[in-house]
């Protein structure tokens, strides 16, 4: 699996004009009445890459993206699903799967500590108790390299899309069962992976029960499903939860059988794309500022948390009663 290091292609991801400082000009409705202070603004980065079955080459690519994020002044970098490995043959992922204290994750922990960045590592092939199934695990590392959050993907990608490949993730992957959010210097992070994006209940749970402010969605969308649904789903999750969404993406052809859509994005709580990669198939980062005053303003002016009708629809993802929802996050 290991091979020679490969150079990181020149990054061609961008901050949009919105991310450059005008993203608060959404509409007269969503504008904050007060200018944001520097303490309200935190810079984050989202990564896009084309992983292969070469674990060492993938690490070198990720290390290059980390260097770019540090240079840009980001506090967190989100890397895509399968950042460390994408196989070309059935069973390869099981063969390389490791526990979280194995050498692959240890290397990324060292990278986080050396760079001083928080790293969102979505879609790590974690070895589980069943030798025939691994976990698709999103690991959150702090700037000291400590594991701060572990989310095992709940929704497994078993699909047959017309014109696309037949995929059955459950053949070799076990589903998780826990909803995870983590406090960080960037804000409260809701941790998910790829196909989870199609299940709004999970994201409503993260917002209304777990108090998430930023949703992490590292992904490896297929080209066909990405063209149809990627941006729409991400913007919908941002709007309905009034959260920032950071969506790292696999991009381009990994091997003869597999191709990913790309288009890494950062979206604000109004649903505006504030950073994205210009080229859907390139390797690089996009950078934007998380503005907590904007988030609070949107939630105050459109208080959907307090308007939820538990008396009508009962046991929803956000809680079966007002008492089960943390109303501290409804301001």
UniProtKB/TrEMBL annotation:
It comes from the Eukaryota. Keywords: Hydrolase. Residues 42-292 form the CN hydrolase domain. One of its GO terms (molecular function) is hydrolase activity, acting on carbon-nitrogen (but not peptide) bonds. This is CN hydrolase domain-containing protein. It comes from Riccia fluitans.
